[in-house]
Design brief:
heterotrimer, A alpha+beta (272), B alpha+beta (123), C alpha+beta (123), B: alpha+beta, Beta-Lactamase, five-stranded antiparallel β-sheet, 3 helices, 5 strands, globular, C: 123 residues, alpha+beta
């Protein structure tokens, strides 16, 4: 669908339900949004670079003209470079999570523009190449996706005596509260989701982070209420973590598995 | 205040400049480049070198923290200047310029790169 | 010709010098150190900077560059660190490492001195 739109030099927004949106101008991608990654607005406000009210005002002013980015630069609140870097970073980030996901059938809305305007163009093959490179980089850091969508928490005590952290890793440890997933952490601290996820995997590999123990699955639900026509009951947010009964051992989304892997690896290292 | 393309062309206007690249350090992504044969691999290499420098120095710094202002590598062929820049939501970004040994003036190049980086990111 | 002890003394005589070392970058161990303070553990700094050199060599290798590193200069908020691989007479796999106080040092002079110290050094 993207290549058709590119060929017909279409301008508008390709919306995949609530999962995300790809903005095109004359067939070229100029911005991508994904529900799982912070948008340009979220990055600038959550990081403290711009105030929420300032952003809101700019958005209202530029709603009809779709030149909000230029407005911010003209008013001197953001440099041209910062705006471009933010659009660039947010688009690479959103593409990584959006293009790899199963999304609802996208609908193209001809003529739809983003209120910030156009600040960078992306070529499609380059974008896909970068997504592949990022995927490989992530798997080199820690080859398991189980931590990606689960809340994480710093381990209470370290096995090592000394540790070196990057600034981003520090921010993540400070905010990892056993309830927030890496993607939510990214939005909270105003950092792109991919570097956050990479840092989470690196720290998991180093034994600094783990998934908190899940509630015992056999726990009877409190005050069961029957609602007519309700769907069969399941744990909220149970992202396929519980495995189907099977006689084969398998690696599941169960965080205890991940923690076991971390412990195993630590034990092996201690033997070296 | 300049944009990314101006930033690169100003970097390329430094006497002796052979190539320039803007790299997102945390992801190793080549964001924009000019005059480099293999930007994607350069970006990864630059990120790794910068990370190794941070890690190495953190170990030996008295309080365990490091802040690098710039990094200059001199080879028998030329210079490589690496300057980190911080935005509030991402970072550091690295701007790197390769310079010809015979035509470049290191002190001048260092000053120019410093001012370019401040023009690109105002915060 | 100068032996290692004399070379280390000469390095420490450079304006602003706070520590000097001769480091083997295969093992990260220092063959000799002089100076250092509570703010700079030279043994650890030497090991840390080994990673910098290795990362840089890996990068140049992956890019197919045949350049030989002459020196690496790292500017921190309060210090300069200069790493200089030794080229001649049994110095293969070794580098000189000099840490300078940024306020007291003359960077151009320090690099110049370090080059001549390396030239007449004998391991």
């Amino acid at each position: 669908m993207l290549s058709d739109l590119a060929e017909s030099r279409a301008t508008g927004a390709l919306k995949a339900g609530r999962s995300g949106t790809v903005y095109l101008s004359k067939g070229r991608i100029c911005y991508v949004e994904c529900a799982r990654t912070p948008t340009v607005e979220e990055l600038l406000t959550a990081s403290g670079r711009l105030s929420l009210s300032g952003m809101r005002t700019a958005r209202q002013t530029a709603a009809a003209t779709a030149d909000g980015g230029d407005l911010l630069v003209r008013r001197g609140v953001l440099s041209r470079g910062e705006l471009q870097l933010c659009v660039l970073g947010a688009t690479l980030d959103a593409s990584f999570f959006l293009f790899g996901a199963t999304v609802p059938k996208p609908k193209f809305r001809e003529g739809d523009r983003h209120w910030l305007g156009i600040h960078w163009f992306f070529d499609v093959p380059g974008l896909f190449r970068e997504c592949h490179r990022r995927r490989a980089r992530l798997d080199r850091a820690w080859p398991s996706a189980e931590l990606d969508s689960r809340p994480v928490v710093p381990v209470r005590r370290l096995r090592s005596q000394h540790v070196v952290l990057t600034a981003l890793q520090w921010e993540i440890l400070l905010n990892a509260d056993a309830e927030t997933t890496p993607a939510e952490l990214a939005k909270r601290i105003g950092r792109p989701a991919y570097p956050t996820l990479l840092a989470v995997r690196e720290m998991a590999a180093a034994g600094l982070l783990e998934c908190p123990e899940p509630p015992p699955p056999e726990k009877p639900p409190d005050l069961p209420k029957r609602v007519a026509g309700a769907a069969p009951r399941g744990l909220p947010g149970d992202g396929g973590g519980r495995r189907a009964q099977s006689s084969y051992p398998e690696i599941s989304g169960d965080p205890t598995d991940v923690n076991l892997l971390i412990r195993l690896r630590n034990a092996l290292e201690a033997f070296q | 205040m300049i944009g990314i393309e101006d930033c690169l062309s100003e970097a390329m206007a430094i006497p002796g400049a052979l190539g320039a690249i803007l790299v997102d350090h945390t992801s190793g992504t080549a964001l924009a480049m000019e005059g480099l044969p293999d930007p994607e691999r350069s970006a990864v290499g630059l990120s790794e070198t910068f990370r190794a420098t941070l890690d190495g120095l953190a170990l030996s710094s008295p309080d365990g923290t490091v802040r690098i202002d710039d990094l200059i590598i001199t080879t028998d062929h030329g210079y490589q200047l690496i300057k980190p820049m911080e935005t509030m939501w991402d970072g550091p970004l690295l701007i790197c310029v390769r310079l010809d040994r015979d035509r470049a003036n290191l002190a001048l190049a260092r000053r120019r790169l410093d001012s370019i980086s401040h023009e690109l990111i105002a915060s | 010709m100068a032996n290692m002890d004399i070379s280390l003394k000469e390095m420490m005589a450079i304006d602003g010098a706070i520590g000097a070392a001769v480091v083997d970058y295969n093992s990260g161990m220092s063959l000799g150190v002089l100076g250092g303070s509570k703010d700079l553990d030279l043994q650890i700094a030497g090991a840390g900077n080994t990673e910098v050199v290795k990362a840089k060599l890996r990068t140049m290798d992956s890019l197919g560059l045949k350049d030989a590193i002459e020196d690496i200069l790292i500017t921190l908020s309060g210090q300069y660190h200069i790493i200089r691989p030794i080229t001649g007479r049994g110095g293969k796999g070794l580098f000189l490492y000099l840490a300078l106080d940024r306020n007291r040092a003359n960077l151009a002079m320090a690099r110049h001195h370090l080059r001549s110290i390396e030239d007449k050094m004998e391991i």
